[in-house]
Amino acid sequence: MDTYVYRIGNNLYVNLTNRCSNRCTFCVRNGKETFEGYALWLREGEPTAEQVMAALGECDCEEVVFCGFGEPTYRLDAMLEVCAYVHAHGKKTRLNTNGHGSLIHGRDIAPELAGKLDGINISLNASNAKLYGELCRPLFPDTAFGGMLSFARSCREHGLNCWFSVVDCIGEAEVAACRAVAQQVGIPLRVREMIE
Ligand code: SF4
């Protein structure tokens, strides 16, 4: 059976889709069947919100994180339904996203996330569109980087708790350049270790 929910540490992670608008050179799913011992490729199709809620049960965790082997905002409606369920159980919600949700849906989705997500981690990955294109190989090559920055700005404007993330392997100079981009957008930058 497909894995809809998996546990890492004190958090439960939700795996809503295989679809992604990037094909990052560093993606944890490249050439892999599993992550942290969980088989995350969805073979039987994408889960319904009801199937995810059944898998979450009583939300025995600190936080429920929308992450998995694809870009969760492809499943915006299901994600928002699950958010309401998680909040009803008194737990926090977080989205790990490539920031393309508004490009994917053709409208600004940030207003729809307000009050539903307690944290949004937006992968910045690079300090400019050229580097981003080389690293992330987006399906929307002309708009991916700018669209991601616009999404971040709109999240900030709608009062969402959001931040950019980059991996430390990009080097100090590029981290500094990413910090400058984050400052321009007006949200924090978190630097995390590369996951092998
Ligand atoms: S955006 Fe995330 S899931 Fe998509 S290819 Fe990049 S690292 Fe993988």
Describe the 3D structure:
The protein is α/β, with parallel strands linked by helices. It has one domain (5-192): TIM Barrel (Alpha-Beta Barrel). It is 34% helix and 19% strand. The protein is built from seven helices and nine strands. The protein has helices spanning 49-56, 76-88, 101-105, 110-113, 129-136, 144-157, 172-185, and strands spanning 5-8, 11-14, 34-35, 38-39, 63-66, 92-97, 119-123, 162-167, 189-192. The strands form two sheets. A seven-stranded mixed beta sheet has the order 1-2-5-6-7-8-9. The chain has a two-stranded antiparallel sheet with strand order 3-4. The radius of gyration is 16 Å and the shape is globular. The protein starts with a strand and ends with a strand.
Q: Indicate the proportion of strand residues.
A: 15-25%
Widest sheet, order of strands = 1-2-5-6-7-8-9
CATH class: Alpha Beta
Tell me, briefly, the overall form. globular
Bound molecules: iron/sulfur cluster
* Count of helical regions: 7
CATH architecture: Alpha-Beta Barrel
